[in-house]
Write a structure and sequence with these properties.
The complex is a heterodimer of chains A (112) and B (115). By secondary structure, chain A is mainly β. Chain A contains no helices and 11 strands. Chain A is globular. The mean pLDDT of chain A is 92. With 115 residues, chain B is mainly β. In chain B, the strands form 2 sheets. In chain B, strands 2, 4, 5, 6, 9, 10 and 11 form a 7-stranded mixed sheet that branches. In chain B, strands 1-3-8-7 form a 4-stranded antiparallel sheet, with no helix packed on it. Classes of the chains: A mainly beta (112), B mainly beta (115). At the A-B interface, strand 5 and strand 10 of A face strand 5 and strand 10 of B.
């Protein structure tokens, strides 16, 4: 069966460190993968998109990698700040399904 | 741009009542999505429209749920009759389907409580 797995446990890190979140998937062949941020009481906000033929994508302090062999995406926030505390969702687009499938999300807490 | 607008923001209703959720997508977007989010099941796609036409409603849980998009600037999600297990946050999102444009823009959500 198809699965998207994100670490259900919250990730707690110290301000200034790099946060790394993981998204693993099985039985999908996604054409691209997206990462969203969700704050409590709000809708998800798009952050980054990476295509299957791209290994890495960067945007300011954010970096995403996409390994289609390992079926894994890593999401990095460098020089993390307390304002980065939120839940981060990965989402796969698979041409066969023509829609986004979201993971359950990982909650990140950055402590001063 | 005001972003995706949803109403109401909160809805409390009794079991058996009809509930209508409303969404105004971002002007110019041609795709619209309805999601439901719960702690147990996460964010689930219920239905999506392209150019006002329903493309995939396989996520609609049962016949009690229906969605319409009469024009490019308005969509509704209706639950009739509502049940306590429908309690969730319902999000509407819009996007511009096309080469290189796949991100979705979410509204603030409607928190539905069915007692």
């Amino acid at each position: 069966s198809q699965k998207i797995e994100q670490n259900s446990e919250a990730l707690n890190i110290q301000e200034g460190k790099t946060a790394t979140l993981t998204c693993n998937y099985t039985n999908y062949s996604p054409a691209y993968l997206q990462w969203y941020r969700q704050d409590p009481g709000r809708g998800p906000v798009f952050l980054l998109l990476i295509r299957e033929n791209e290994k890495e994508k960067r945007k300011e302090r954010l970096k995403v990698t996409f390994d289609t062999t390992l079926k894994q995406s890593l999401f990095h926030i460098t020089a993390s700040q307390p304002a980065d505390s939120a839940t981060y969702l990965c989402a796969l687009f698979s041409g066969g399904y023509n829609k986004l499938i979201f993971g359950a999300g990982t909650r990140l807490a950055v402590h001063p | 741009d005001a972003g995706v607008i949803q109403s109401p923001r909160h809805e409390v209703t009794e079991m058996g009542q009809e509930v209508t959720l409303r969404c105004k997508p971002i002007s110019g977007h041609n795709s619209l999505f309805w999601y439901r989010q719960t702690m147990m099941r996460g964010l689930e796609l219920l239905i999506y429209f392209n150019n006002n036409v329903p493309i995939d409603d396989s996520g609609m849980p049962e016949d009690r749920f229906s969605a319409k998009m009469p024009n490019a600037s308005f969509s509704t999600l209706k639950i009739q009759p509502s049940e306590p297990r429908d309690s969730a946050v319902y999000f509407c999102a819009s996007g511009l389907a096309g080469e290189g444009s796949y991100e979705q823009y979410f509204g603030p959500g409607t928190r539905l409580t069915v007692t």
